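Supplementary Text 2. Reproducibility record for the structural model of the 292-residue chain.

All settings were left at their defaults, and a single model was retained for analysis rather than an ensemble. We include the record here because the model underlies the residue-level annotations in Supplementary Table 4.
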Amino acid sequence: MHVIGGTASTSLAERVSRELGNAPFGIPFTKRFPDGEMYVRVGGRLEGEDVVLVQSTRTDADLLELILLEDAIREAGARHLYVVVPYFGYARQDRRFFPGEPVSARALCRVVELDADAVVTVDLHSAQTLTQFTKPAYEASGIPAIARLLRERPVDVLVSPDKGGVERVRRMAQLLEKPWFALDKKRIDSDHVELKIPAELPGTLEGKQLVLVDDVITTGGTMVEAAKLLTKNGAGAVSAACTHGLFLRDAFERIKAVTDEVYSTDTLGNAAEKASVAPDIAEILRRQLPSD
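Retained model, structure tokens:
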């Protein structure tokens, strides 16, 4: 099995190759023509081989590179192509609210799977998106990666910034054998939220080491307000952890200013990248995907 890392996921792809027993690893050549069009070329002998392509699609350029690399790998004669999209762009646009809108997540599923035999993602915004693929599709979780990291850190209580993340924080709590709770959240706008401590708590927060857990941090508004609230209510230390660290604008700096640590996995390269989902992706590749 060969592993190829697109420019958005080179480091993670190399980690996946190591998890797969040091599978042959390659980085494609990419450039832009004078008119702005993208050019890619894959190296190595891929004819008759199983190939894993790893590329997050945070930007439209990342998506275009993924599409071109899929075609290039097929042109090179690969037997099977397994496409790993750690961060699946447009996944949050998973439904139509007004007439004339696309279901963008579904549209991208159709494009991404076109030349693939199977697709692997990590922590999609909605499980519904996985059903939009017509070919085998699998979702790895970022929770085990964060849990592996937190086992080496002092943690007393895990916290979800809202009720929507209850299942996520509950699973993390089970892995770490720690108590947990979820904040009550009311969104005011895209950058501002109102948070409250729930009436029922697993004991006092006084002096405790708390970790806020979410799937994605975008503008950071929720995490900032949550950290301030927990500190105000006596927390000894507050950290923030997520699978996908987008950290738009100055989000990372704002969160760092009100927390003791900020952790994310390596689905996207960023300053908080401290945990790897490579073992979890490799496990799916070994056990779930067809090899014939």
